[in-house]
Structure formats: C-alpha cells, structure tokens
Amino acid sequence: MAKRNASGTLRAWELGVRLRRARGELGLTAAAVAKRVGIAPSNFSAIEAGKRRVTASNLAQLAKAYELDDADRKLLESLRVEAEQRNWWHDYGELYSEEFLRFLGLEAGASAVREWAPIYVAGLLQTNEYARATIRAGSPYIKAVDVGPRLETRLARQALLDDGLNMDVVLTEGALRQQVGGPAVMCRQLDHLTEVITRPNSTVRVRVVNYEAGAHALTGGPLSLLSFDNALLPDLIWQETAITGNLIDRVQVIREFKASFEDVFGSEDTSNSVALNDTESLTLIQQIRHEMEAAA
Question: Can you spell out the DSSP letters for 126-152?
C-alpha cells in the first residue's frame, strides 16, 4: 500500500497550484499562456486544477514562459513524474466516477479528516461485514459482481489509519443503532469501533450526538473535510449523497462546515459541545453493543 504522501493525485494538484501561482506572479492570463504553449484552454484549466496530467515538453514550455529558475524547474518536473505514478485506486477506475477517484487520491494524501457521519458508521471505520451490507443496499444499480471490488476499495482506504491519519468523527446515535446487517454484524462493528478508539496511540477520535442533543449545527448528509500538511493545498470537502458525490473547494462553505463541526465535536474539554465527550461516547457505544447482543 502506498504511503499517504505518495499520492499521485496530490502531486498533480500541487503541481497545478504551483503553475497557477507562477502564472499569477507574472500577471499572465490562462488564455494567453495556453495559446502560447499550444494547450487547449479547457485542458490548461484542468492542468492548473490538478485534474489533468501535463507532458514533460509542455511543462518545460510553461517553466520557460514563467521564467522559472533551475531549482523551481526541477521541483515541478519531480512533481510531474510523481503525478504519473499509478496508485491502487486506479485499478478500480471502471467502477467509479472521475470525481470519486480524485477523492480517493486526495484522501490518500490527507493528513487529517474530520467527518460528519449521520447515517452510517464512517467508511474508514467499517468492518468487512458492515461495509458489505451498506454497499449491497447502496443502490439498485450496483451489480452483484461489483460488490466485491467496491468492498476491496473501502477496506483498502482503511490502511490510512495505520499510516497515522488523524481522524475526528461525529456519529449520531441513530447511526449506531441502525441495524446494518443485523444485530450480530452490529455487535462486531461496535466492537471494532471500540478497538480503534482505544488502541494505543490511536489517531482516531469518535464523538456521538445522542438522541437528547436536540437541534445542532451539523445537518444534512455525510460530509468529510480533508486537510493536508502542504501549506499550498487548502482544505476540501467531500459531499456524499445517495447517488453521487462531489468535491467542494468553496472557501465560505468550508469555513462554515469547520465552524459547525467544531461546535458539535467540541474542544478538548467538550464543556460546550453538542456531542458527548470521548468517555461518554465510548460508554454509549458499548451500551448499544450490549443491547445489540441481547437482541442477536
């Protein structure tokens, strides 16, 4: 499994950001540069967004147009080469949209994830059985033959937790009580949650909004906020719906979600949070697990 910082998707994005910044420093328009180096305007925009790869010759032309020194040229070429690498999620390209594949690549390079999971347990924290049940129920258009590969994808993502990904999750009590796969499957899922949370040096924190919490700032469907160690790369939101998903880079939307998440998740002391604190959340998870066991 590739390490987080080896994500080709992340490298392509950083390359695009650096190219856009270099162009901006000279006051050049995208249209003018695209014409000068012979790249279609739509392709040029995609390169700057990190959504399209750039050839070595085109990159050399851009570096010349931007009057970059040797050190900057070498850095950009290094990023271009790394962006070309094939990562594990490319093996599942026929199953998913380009947007979801891009999300997988960005998630693989993230340093931290903050996730609001109101319906199901967050994908990175799911057991094999639980994940299979959610995939089977996810859409009537998912072919039986595709369930296995989709499950492989979800489980492959979980290697990020072994690589030090920091993850804060807000779950609802309803998500914990939803009998996905039946009581026995839920017992094992809740056991897994407990194990992940309590393992030594865990980088995962899970807090639960219980039924008594009432109205709060986090509403709507699942959202994940991705953050990166690289100061050039801003936070992004992954918004998932029943039928699709999309990446959101709008600054105001991200600012509002961060504020809402912090309001619900709370600070270290959680004295003013909507969610239960770490200890209370773990107690509730274990309580629900015992109830599930009695029902199994």
Answer: --HHHHHHHHHHH-TTS-HHHHHHHHH
